[in-house]
Specification:
single chain, alpha/beta, Nucleotidyltransferase, domain 5, 6-stranded mixed β-sheet, binds adenosine-5'-diphosphate
Length: 397
């Protein structure tokens, strides 16, 4: 069974074609700059040369059309006809309270997704556009939606409610939802597989540390808390997002600097985080380099980031009454030896002990804790596309 996984952003579209018999990626690629000048599709099929198609693409439908043509291309393709695509799995950012798991897409599902647009105005519309474009181009292929929020729908009420008037939750759906759910679910399941434990017996803290970053507390295989909230702005310090701050800062800035809501939003989402503190970059590699060159603000940015992740680990251990496993994943979590070391430093009192030789690893499944560490610490590369493909296979078979 071949499954096409699609992740539509506002001006980009990532895809993978996965053969689910042995979970092999047959082809993958990226359409960029959709709707703006210089649009192109970068495509690569297993064992074939890379293909770059530089063509104007004014819509996601045009981009998907080029992706489909590339997939069946005689020289660069992975399959000989579109009939070899058995199902399509779509990443959808916000499922609100309507979706606690992945679903087969029909008209009702699309309508329900549209109702969630208010909660994710930047992300859900391109996700829906991608779904509608695929429906037009491949009307007979079943499609599944996999939501970033779904895994966290198991959070108990005390974890998801904000201490605001309860009516605002009821009227507007203002509550904590959490994101990166597909990633937290994938790495927590993988940990149980690697340790040969029943996931029901594990208390796991998963740290998804990329440009966007979140931590989740997972008990009995279910998310019981996570650091992102109503939107992906809450929680950790991120590449450009501020994470947790005193909410009064918003009105303070509006008053003092005569800023509009849009300007404050822009600061909190695009100009804050490690970029804001360091003034160097949102990319952790650049900041690590700047620290080596003696840049004090870059060091402060990293120190703040590590400190906040450490505090979340401590609080989630408290929330679950213990922790058995910690997982590091995503760009920084998978690759930064120093980030993992600094975050775990000082957590020995919880039974978390990193082995510096084992921690000298990047981008592959590895145990990085000492043999006698009470808490096992893992690096596990995330694979959201595979998780989406697995859900799709399960639901359409
Ligand atoms: P997203 O999907 O949220 O854009 P990723 O999971 O791709 O993010 O992570 C991107 C982040 O990971 C970047 O900030 C980058 O600096 C960091 N990263 C990637 N590789 C390394 C590395 N070798 N060392 C340190 N940081 C890294």
């Amino acid at each position: 069974m071949n499954i096409l996984v699609i992740n539509c952003g506002s001006s980009s579209l990532k895809y993978q074609l996965i053969d689910m018999n042995d979970e092999i990626v047959l082809a993958k690629g990226l359409a960029e700059r959709i709707g703006i000048e210089g649009s192109r599709v970068k495509h690569e099929a297993k064992g074939k040369d890379k293909l770059v198609v530089e063509e104007p693409m004014t819509s996601h439908k045009e981009a998907i059309n080029i992706v489909l043509k590339s997939l069946v291309d005689k020289t660069y393709g992975a399959i000989s006809s579109l009939e070899e695509i058995d199902a399509i799995g779509h990443r959808v950012v916000h499922g609100g309270e309507k979706f606690a798991s992945s679903v087969v897409i029909d008209k009702d599902v699309i309508d329900a997704m549209k109702e969630c647009i208010d909660l994710a105005p930047l992300h859900n519309p391109p996700n829906i556009i991608g779904i509608e474009a695929c429906k037009e181009l491949l009307p007979d292929v079943p499609m599944v939606a996999v939501f970033d929020t779904a895994f966290h729908q198991s959070m108990p009420e005390k974890a998801y409610i904000y201490p605001l008037p309860y009516e605002l939750y009821k009227e507007l759906g203002i509550r904590r939802y959490g994101f990166h759910g597909t990633s937290h679910r994938y790495v927590s399941q993988k940990v149980a597989e690697l340790t040969n434990d029943d996931i029901k017996n594990l208390k796991i803290i998963t740290c998804h540390l990329g440009n966007g970053a979140s931590v989740a507390a997972i008990e009995n295989g279910k998310s019981v808390d996570t650091s992102m909230g109503l939107t992906p702005l809450e929680g950790l310090v991120m590449g450009t997002r501020c994470g947790d701050i005193d909410p009064a800062i918003v009105s303070f800035l509006m008053n003092k600097k005569k800023m509009s809501i849009a300007e404050v939003n822009n600061i909190m989402n695009k100009k804050s985080g490690v970029l804001g503190i360091s003034g160097v970059s949102s990319d952790f590699r650049d900041i690590e380099e700047a620290v080596k060159d003696g840049d004090c603000r870059a060091k402060l940015a990293l120190d703040k980031f590590y400190y906040v992740v450490k505090k979340y680990i401590g609080s989630y251990a408290a929330a679950m009454g213990g922790v058995d496993v910690i997982v590091f994943t995503a760009g920084l979590g998978e690759n930064s030896i120093s980030a993992r070391e600094e975050i775990c430093k000082g957590l020995e009192f919880l039974g978390i002990e990193i082995d510096s030789d084992k921690n000298n690893t990047r981008g592959k499944d590895a145990v990085i804790s000492k043999d006698n560490s009470k808490v096992k610490v893992f690096v596990i590369p995330t694979n959201e596309e595979l998780m989406i493909a697995r859900d799709t296979k399960e639901l359409v078979k």
